[in-house]
What does this fold into?
Amino acid sequence: MTPSSDLAPSAQQRLRRIEGRHNSLVKELRQAFGRAEHSESGHCAIEGLRIVEEAIRSGLRFRAVFFKESAQNLAERLLPQIGAHVERVLLPDKLFDGAVPCETPQGVAALVQVKEFSLDDVLERLQVGPVVVVVGLQDPGNLGTMLRSAEAFGSAGVVLGEGTVSPFNSKVIRASAGSIFRLPVVLAKTAGGLDEIAARLRKETVRLIATSSHKGTALDQARLTGPLAVFIGSEGSGLPRTLMAQVDELVAIPHAPQVESLNAGVAGSILLYEAARQRRER
It folds into this structure.
């Protein structure tokens, strides 16, 4: 814990102390975390030193940054990187912990405006790599891993179908390590639903493939170059039959027979890596 007297005077003067839980900014932070979606002002909540710095590095617009009283030394590191127009708030520990749902809070959170993308934005990037379509994936760590791998191995963007955890869930954002701030991510419901998206992909001559645990073309035999969309379902139920009927090919990732299936985030990452490897070889 760093008492305020140990901070540089400039940092102390730039922090506005708030002690009431009904303050509008505190309420917006708490609601954005609780609902895992944009607040009414169009901002999402993020937490943790690394994630806040990734948001800065990614050029996101900040509405407010919140420091926990016992961790206000972080202000000396972060405030010089944040514009003067951003609200800088100091919260008592109890108030901060009540607003930020994290098991190991690092003492800094923020409200930021995440870039919005459309399906057209994703399709314009098909030369970058595959479109990833995720359906019914509810584990936030898995989705965050998928987003991180999609950026790392080159993806046109990610489409999130029905039943998938919100990309603004704080655990998704943390697991993505900042990729959510830069990678085009589209909610299927805003683009007409999965059937409409599949039809649009076919119109753009995009091949549709899906991952499978037990059948299909072996990964090292599959062609993963050219305009491509990869459909990944949940670990439990996989992809809906209606979608499975629309794909052009199933691709199986070989693994030990005693293992029933791979983690969805891992399976997606392996496939994206192989697609990137094939593009490099070409």
Q: What stands out?
A: The chain has a mean pLDDT of 90.
